[in-house]
Amino acid sequence: MSFDYILETRDICKNFGKLAANDRISLKIKRNTIHSIVGENGAGKSTLMNILTNIHKADSGEILINGKEVKFKSTIDAARQGIGMVYQEFMLMKGFTSFENIIVGFEEKKGIAIDFKESRKKVERICDEYHFPLPLDTLIDDLPVSVLQQIEIVKVLYRGAEIIILDEPTSSLTPQGIRGLFSAIRALRDLGKTVLFITHKLKEVFEISDEISVLRDGKLIGTYQPSDVNPQKLANLMVGREVILKANKAPHEVGETVLKVDNLSVYDKDGIERVKGVSFDIKKGEILGIAGVAGSGQQHLSEALYGLTRPKQGSSIEFNGEEISRGNPLDRHKNRIGYVPQDRIGSGCNVNGTIWENCIMGYHKARGFDPPWLLNYKQAHDFSRKVVEDFDVKIQTIEDRVGSLSGGNIQKLIVGREFSQQNILLIIEDPTRGIDVGAIEYIWEKLLDFAAQGVSVLMISHDLNEVMQLSDRIMVMYDGHLYNAGNYLELTEEQIGLIMMGGSLHE
Amino acid sequence: MNKTTKLGEEFKINLIKYSFSLFAVLLIGSLLIMAQGENPITAVSSIFVGAFGSKVNFGNTLHWMAPCMLVGTAALIAFRSGVMNLGLEGQIYFGALAAGLAGYMVELPPIIHPLFCIVVGGIAGMLWALLPAILRLFFNISEVISTLILNYIAILLAELFTILLMKFEKNMSVTNIATTKILDSARLLVLIKGTNATSALIIAAVILVVVYLVYKYTVVGYELKQVGQNLKFAKIGGVNASRVFISIFLISGFIAGICGATETIGVNYKFISRFSANLGWDGVMITRVAANSPGGVAVVSFIWAAFKAGAMHMERNTVLNRYVINLLQAIFVLFISIDYKMLYTNYKERKFIKSQSLKERD
After folding, report:
1. A166 and A88 fall within a common domain
2. Based on the domain organization, do A275 and A259 belong to the same domain?
3. pLDDT tens, B315-351?
4. In this predicted model, what pLDDT tens digit does every residue of A21-66 receive, in sequence order?
5. Hey, is the C-beta of B357 within 8 angstroms of any chain A C-beta?
6. Residue A502 and residue B175: Cα distance in Å, rounded?
7. A72 and A122 assigned to the same domain
8. List of chain A residues whose C-beta atoms are within 8 Å of the C-beta of residue B230
9. Whole-model pTM?
10. Within a domain: residue A244?
11. CB-based contact, B230 to chain A, within 8 Å
12. A259 and A122 fall within a common domain
């Protein structure tokens, strides 16, 4: 039984609404190799993996294992057929030992009772064979991340996986942890397994892969040998999309410094440092664009800037010469700083509220009513109507529920709310994610307009094209650090793409 | 057009929700009643007579409406802002005890005295509600757990205080544990003679109207609603969530305390240990059925009160126990709580997938 390809997909398609997340993907994975799948966020990597593990059902297309077509009934069925996935977020249960976490759901049985002895033997055999010296009887609560990952790998091996999918496995590891992981991955391959390695970090791809497949915009661009491509070319393949939209930005002068951030560090609630001592400033009328792959620390940066999380001691955020790092969101509103969060539905608006209720959030305290405790309906409605008219939000009446609007209209509403309060600085995340082309153009135009009028904009976006089209100055966030990426049109998209993936321009 | 279709759909789902729940409860209720050898129609008419049959009966309904409305309002304030205050029962007990003490320990002129008792009761309920709020904010203990547990502590603690204060014997039977009768000056005004329909109803109505006005016309009311519907959105908008959380707990506890106080100075004229037949839970159910709207609380409280008054009458005139009504009320709340909208969308999705797979086969 010797087929060249252990896993094959044929014309896999998956649509989410109008979005084609996977568009006729035909991928071939050679047995006994380490196969990297690279692509930007939203390129369709996760969707494809979720189809392989039966979390999603493909709209059409076939999956072949060892040359035979398979149809999975459930995720457990996919595991039985030999596909095991190690997720980015570990699926381990606290309060249980490593051993218990490994065998859960697939215990060896003696009648209806769990045969702990037999299960234990099996786990120990796997640990021995693949050189994972795991502390089997320790509660997982007490173990470091790198060990948890090994537990996840042993778990899929225990379940009989032949193909092991690792989804962004290095994102939470230290450099030493990554080295350990890579030697483990090589050991898996040498002992006959096949590894699918999902990542967007170029350096790692070249270090570990036997073959590399590139996804972009839901399509498979191609499969390459590492010797045939270099980091520059790979970045090109990953981000080199056609530019559909041009912002027609006119270069303009900027004024004095408005925001000055110095040595800002932010920890998340698990105590992991997500923003690592970044420093930057924004001048009056300047659009500073921060590009970067999702999860590089952008979220934590903007939350700290807006006073939602407290930065580490020693961090400094100066706004018009005043230290504001200990303030709260209300202070930011009063300082005339606006914020358009990335998660439009989750934190940008209240979908169950009316248009006017959504328009006056923030305004109601920072600009205020007279007397301040009384909700002045006329003032609230007037302000809301102004937002709606100025920003071309298509509604029937301001008593409509926001949930009944399209994504583009909701975004116009939120941007309008933050722009209609004579703000001096605007922090905006992914201004145009998931909205239609017309709304994108409208919001871009507005952003440039306001910058021309002297409003400073900090734009954090995952869309590199957007950053390049709008920003006076570009920085790239990678792994919690900020890197300078030059002024407007100074660097090419490919060069910035390279920095986004952790590469360096001078290699 | 967009708006009307949207509103129309919401209205349709609500209509389906309430009429289906009513129908289901009537069906289950009829079966339950028939299983006990009683005619459902006799039972229903007996409830109706008990609730509205005479001036006294109607007075009884009004009597029950006051605590229902008060505790319903207390629950409304919490649930509308997403705060799970399940400790209303305990807050009622502290309010009732404090009002009972204020009723005989202090001498004040009429009108002022009952108002004093009510404020004291409210403050006692508020202080008891402060405890879970602190536990949540400083020790991160979920208020669902802490308020539930504190209910039992409150009931027994109120009993212990009464025993110590009145110097009762330890082995005294629970039903006799009560404080000294309150002074006549502390009593609430009786509205319908021969019943316990008192000015508590007016107090409850005033409080509910004030709450309605606060929600409708003040910045605080706006913030309370937004916090309940999307906390993150409100936080980014500059709402101080911790302060809102504490205020909600305190106000909710204050009104629950008032509820206990009116029972003491309007009905029992003394604090009686274990007097409340799960009033706190009635409040939770009333708000649930009223879908967190102040107007709804008034209507549902009236219905709830009619059932409470009618159930007693039914128990006397039929073979049925009045707890049958409690049971049916609870079942009704369960049916109301079903997410019909989600069921509907799931159903549509499944139908869609089925039609897709059928197409594939062709």
Report:
1. yes
2. yes
3. 888 888 888 888 998 999 999 888 887 787 777 767 7
4. 888 999 999 999 999 998 876 678 888 988 998 888 888 899 999 8
5. no
6. 75
7. yes
8. 346-347, 349-353
9. 0.75
10. no
11. yes
12. no
Q: Is the pLDDT of residue A389 over 50?
A: yes
| Residue in chain A nearest B240 by alpha carbon | A330
Q: Which two tokens stand for residue A165?
A: 């999918």
In a domain, A245, yes or no: no
Cβ separation A329–B237 shorter than 8 A:
yes
**How many domains does the structure of chain B reveal?**
1
Burial class (CB in 10 A: 0-12, 13-18, 19+), A451: buried
What DSSP assignment string belongs to B66-81? Answer: HHHHHHHHHHHHHHHT
Dihedral angle, C-alpha A282, A288, A292, A294, nearest 10 °:
80
Distance from CA of A405 to the nearest CA of B (A): 9
Range of the domain at A298: 250-336+424-507
Q: Is B325 within 8 Å of B47 (Cβ atoms)?
A: yes
Give me the number of domains chain A comprises. 3
- How far is B2 from B13, CA to CA, in rounded Å? 17
Residues A415 and A428 in one domain: no
Give how far A138 is from chain B: nearest CA, Å.
27
Contact B230 A401 (CB under 8 A): no
The Cα of A91 is separated from the nearest Cα of chain B by a number of Å equal to 24
Which chain A residue lies closest to B221 (C-alpha atoms)?
A375
Say if residue A52 is in the same domain as residue A92: yes
In-domain check, residue B213: yes
Looking at the predicted complex, does its ipTM rise above 0.85? Answer: no
Measured between beta carbons, which residues in chain B are less than 8 angstroms from residue A429? none
User: Contacts of residue B238 in chain A, CB cutoff 8 Å?
Assistant: 328-330, 332-333, 362, 365-366
Q: Are the Cβ atoms of A374 and B218 closer than 8 angstroms?
A: yes
Q: Given an 8 Å threshold on Cβ–Cβ distance, is A373 in contact with B232?
A: no
Q: Are residues A151 and A287 in the same domain?
A: no
Cβ contact A290:A459 at 8 Å? yes
